[in-house]
Amino acid sequence: MNLFTKPMRLLTAVVLQQRSDQVVKALLQLGVLDFIHISRLEADQLAKLSSKPSTTNRVVLEDLRGRVEALLKQGHLALPGESTLDVSLLAEPQVDAYRAVLDELTQTLLALKERQKVANQALLGVEEMRRYLAESKWQYLDLRVGSVKEGKSEQLEEKLSPYGAFVEPIDEEFVTVLSLRRDLAQIDPLLDKFGWTEESDPLLQKQAVVLVRTRLETEHQKLIDKRGEIEQSVKRAIAERKEELHAIWSNLRLNELSDQIKSYFSYTRNTTLFSGWVPADQAESVRNAIVEASGGQCVVEWTEATEVPRESVPVAVTSPKVLEPFQNMVNNYATPEYGTVNPTIFVMIAYLSMFGLMFGDVGQGLVLLLVGLFGSRSYRRNPEKKEGLLTRNVTNLLVYLGLSSMLFGALFGSYFGLPLLPPLWFNFEAAVEGHAPATALVRDVYGILGITIRFGIIIIYTGLVLNWVNLFRKKSFVPMLLDKNGVVGGVLFGTGIYMAFGFVGSSYRSFPSDPWIIPTLVICLILLFAKPYVQHFVDLKQGRADKTFGQVAAGSIMEFLVDVLEIFTGYLSNTLSFMRVAGLGIAHASLMGTFKYLQSMVGGVAGVLIFIAGNLLVIVLEGLSAGIQSLRLNYYEFFSRYFTGRGIAYRPVGLKRSSSDNR
Amino acid sequence: MSSVDTYGFVNAKMRARLGKAREEAVTEALLRAPTLVDAIAALRPTRYAALARSYDQSGDIQSIELVLLKMEIALYREIAQYLDGVEGRFVAELLGKIEIDNLKNSIRLWYSSIIHRRPIRHRSEYLFKEVILHPVDWTALINALSWDGVVEATANTPYHPILPEYTEESLREEGLFQLESRLDRVWYEEIRKATAWLKKTDRQKALELLDQEIDLKNLLILVRYGWYHRLEAKELLSLLLPWGEVFKSKEVNRYIETPKENRSASELLSQFLPDEQRVGDHSAVEEVLRIEELLAQNQKRAYRRLLGGDPFTIGVALAYFFLNKEEFRRIKAILNGKYYGFDEGYIRGVIG
Fold first, then answer.
1. Which residues pair with A418 in a beta bridge?
2. For chain B, how long is the longest CA-to-CA vector?
3. In this predicted model, what pLDDT tens digit does every residue of A208-219 receive, in sequence order?
4. CB contact (8 A) between residue B119 and residue A186
5. CA pair distance A34, A36, nearest whole angstrom
6. pTM above 0.90, yes or no
7. Within an 8 Å CB–CB cutoff, is residue B124 touching chain A?
8. Nearest Cβ partner for A163 among B32, B36, B119
9. How many other CB atoms sit within 10 Å of the CB of residue A411?
């Protein structure tokens, strides 16, 4: 893992045009080059270059790939992943042939679906009658018994089929006809044509009821089976072409990627030029791949990231797989600037500490840990599993949160809210409820608030130090020393903390009056005021000044006032913001106290159930609140000190996702 | 309870969902799908996954339409639940529109079965048969052997006093158009009555929106039946909904009184539409369709504007329902278009 973003190098290569396809394949295979358009050549050199229109239309490729995916989804088959792509199989896309395959399969499916529709509609007709029969709604049904004098009963059934009526033989002479009464106006004339003679024998009537019930059940099952069979046929039709669909998908995707790479290429009459960023540790393998693919007929040049403007360098950060949940938190916020600190490890420590302080309990932490472990295992076993409320990332995160909660639970001596073992630090619940022993390290909620404020100060100072490191690496010495988040800001914050603690120490009667305080404050404020002037002087010296002295002077007063306001209110509110950690922790302990009280009141099995339900409620609600508040504190109080988020992400083009693709 | 308390939560929820719907861009994905199979696949990763499941099982677009109707009803009920109180009751009352449409569909099926003597077999199963707002006995209605049976099936509902005004004979001779127009009017009567429950700001907003909708409908009636079908003045007047600016205006009165051969749709519309939306005056179906599309677009714009206004009024909920209904309508139209093999451009033209 890198503590800072990965060093990058800019590659510029020239290869013979005839070898460019091989080079594309090699680069696709490596998947580490973040391409850029060549633009830093001299204008007259650039004028000699040309671009070639793509031989394939990428939109067409994407549309066709979308169709393949649609068919695979229709067949409930997994999509082939990019990890299965084999660059050696890259071939000219046969767009017309692919389209023909897809059209043919689609037509087959549509024909099957049409049959399924007919079966479904017949099923609905049967279901309606079946429902009326089951609910004894005879007013909607017409059941009659009689004999057909002209023609056969099968012919009669065929004639009545548009109305969904059934003709069921009772014996050799009599048949029964079941239909809907609303269709009688159409059915009666048909029956007359067949010479229908009504029979009123009650025994036959009873028999008829049993027969039509059985017939409806049989027809219903038959139609369900038929509909299901057609659904299976749809799946089979797609499954039979699975290999072909996968092959089409793979070649389309390879061509899309290849075309994407070629879109960055520039051409002279015989050569191909391209350029892109590579992590420094991969530079050698990229060079070797190009040399090998071009048969040595190439020129490869490297430019160091220090030679180009920092803001144009893409940012790659690597974190071990285990830190992925925290890397995702950073990614969700923004991309760090090139050359600055990779905040992942700091986020992990801060996040887990905050969560543990708010949600410290060994038992409840164990539940989170188990949920996390089972969830992650389930996703690992079934990579195609659709993400639910607990996403892959959340289940991974829960493992850490569970461990953190267990550690702090042991420190606070809390096991599902019960003091099963003595606390290693102090009894949180006893401090909240005001019955902590006199020897306890923390005896009341003020003590807890004090801990979280101190914790907040550590977090803010960590942020400041990281900011100074970042600015030092960027050689931005003036902001590093004189900015509100620079050393001056840090000294003012430190002085403020000293005064605040002195004020609390005097039982809120007076601020400390040490002789160094006023001079420190005055010097810091003067330095803060001087910052724009010093910066202007440095810019002038480096030939980067874009403002006149008058503009600097005019802006400096407003800038100073805003900075002062931000230092005094911003630092204060940021620090006090950490009291929410105590607040959530106190709420957690209070809720558990309440459920234990309820349990003792009710007793017995009901009491146990209350205790279990209380724990579950606390795990879900408090766990969620603590998770969200920890994230908020990281994003707003911690990141705002050092994380500018002005970086551009490193996005290499290739088949495999390189480790640095995590940014 | 302040309007922020009433609408704060539901407003955030509705906006989040609208944002998600915009992100998903379902209708655009459906339009671009070359076949029905691709269109169904485009539904799978969206909030309409249930439609794809229904199609997988049945292979029938009509089953998708029923699922969409169920989704729409559930949407109203959910928001009504979140709102509680009079606002919740009012939102639940909005289901009356869906109920009337369902009633019209059921009567059409009954008409087809009993009057036209055509089998309606599975089609009756695609009707929504549960209680929507009032206790209409849908099964009894669809199985009624006479018009009296239909009337009886609507007992204890606001439609019951209306239906006896028609007879089987009158329906056989004149068709269902007059009855359906009358039922539409019942809906507006009922919902306007329901606005009395609301607080003043909400009442005003709801009435304003209803009047806008009524104006649009009246304009459509005036153009379609007054100009294109050239109905007599009395007949035309009976179709109009008796509320809103359009109904009260002198220009409309003059238009109705003008001999039917001399009525000018463009002259009429110029009173109610901005200059840039002037229309021609050719007696052509295209012209009517164009006018209808223009008016529908104006309505859509009006509802979209609502979302940019005060978030703590009933207006946002009404806009939310409207936009969802629009999306449901477009999905239905696109899937039907794909089923019949129409190309993207044609379907775009139809759905507007």
1. A415
2. 56
3. 999 999 999 999
4. yes
5. 7
6. no
7. yes
8. B119
9. 18
